[in-house]
Design brief:
The protein has about 55 residues and is an all-alpha fold. Helices cover about 55% and strands about 0% of the residues. It contains two helices and no strands. The chain is elongated.
């Protein structure tokens, strides 16, 4: 968004086919990121108990 605030003349936009491919590659990441976040939080709880107090 910050790049677009200066106008479009210096911003390269990927073709629609490339955007669609990138969307398809990241389609299942929502579930994976939820699992990863839970694991990272457990690790933080072990290594630094009381950080959220």
């Amino acid at each position: 968004m910050a790049a677009l605030s200066g106008g479009l003349e210096h911003v390269l936009v990927a073709p629609e086919a490339a955007q669609a491919e990138a969307r398809g590659q990241s389609a299942g990441l929502g579930m994976v990121s939820g699992l990863a976040w839970a694991g990272l939080k457990r690790q933080l709880d072990r290594k630094n108990p009381g950080y959220d107090a």
